[in-house]
Amino acid sequence: MQFLVDTHTHTISSGHAYSTVLENAQAASQKGLALFCVTDHAPTMPGAPHFWHFANQRVLPRFLHGVGILRGVEANLINIDGDIDLDPRITDQLDWVIASLHEPVFRPVDKETHTQALLNLIASGRIHAIGHLGNPNFDFDFEAVITAAMKHNVLIEINNSSLCGSRQGSELRCEDIAAFVKEVGGRITTGSDAHFADDVGNFTHVRHLLKQVNFPTERVVTHHPKCFLDFLQERGQHGIAEFSVF
């Protein structure tokens, strides 16, 4: 299975990543990607940039090293009400919004609390995808959350970093999540979660997992740039003129 879009990458602005946008773009080009999303951590994550970093992404060119750049964020789910840590005036200007649960921001509680927080997040209409749900520290009701995500056209991310040690114990949970998304007819996105340029476009473990569950290629929005851009337009995003080449 081929992936031409990476929807989850970090730069030095995240505080614990080590490459620049330019370096990530060069790596994306070398990997043969068509598009990648810049998704630095939102402000409540320790070491993350000020909200101006996200408000000013309009200065990023649409292409670097021949690869299309989408302006985004990995926001933090901050409470059971489903709120995220970036003002709508900023997220509404971005192309792509992932939200994730991170231990330094949302202390793990119990399955019921995590589930309710995720359901409220999905219903808020403010995000395009939920990141690295396989983290065993944040157990949740798979059926309730994945069914709600499908209803609200929110993608479930399969995160390559989770499958190679960054969140211990994620592997089997990610496989179960992918299998359930397949069963209910949902769609997924794939993110490298790169914190260093060499990992941009690295989907080695994701590819193996999706093969294991025989996940349909057409329901992976990152398999082709047009598929990904069509999803964004389904969600009401304005078309990006520079990407008409896709």
UniProtKB/TrEMBL annotation:
The Polymerase/histidinol phosphatase N-terminal domain covers which part of the protein? 5-79
Entry keyword Nucleus: no
Q: Does the keyword Hydrolase apply?
A: yes
Which InterPro entries does the protein's record reference?
Answer: Phosphatase_YcdX_put, PHP_dom, PHP_phosphatase, Pol/His_phosphatase_N, Pol/histidinol_Pase-like
Which cofactors go with this protein? Zn(2+)
The UniProt record gives the binding positions of Zn(2+) 2 as H16, H41, H195
Mind telling me which residue stretches traverse the membrane in this protein?
A: none
Quick one: which residues bind Zn(2+) 3?
A: E74, H102, H132
| Database matches in SMART domains | POLIIIAc (SM00481)
Q: Which SUPFAM superfamilies does the UniProt entry name for this protein?
A: PHP domain-like (SSF89550)
**What are the GO MF terms of this UniProt record?**
phosphatase activity; zinc ion binding
This protein's GO CC annotations: cytosol
One biological-process term from Gene Ontology?
A: bacterial-type flagellum-dependent swarming motility
List positions binding Zn(2+) 1.
H8, H10, E74, D193
The alphabetical list of record keywords is: Hydrolase, Metal-binding, Zinc
| Entry's cofactor comment | Binds 3 Zn(2+) ions per subunit.
Q: Which Pfam families match?
A: PHP
Q: Which family does it belong to?
A: Belongs to the PHP family.
Q: What is this protein called?
A: Phosphatase
Q: Which organism is it from?
A: Photobacterium lipolyticum
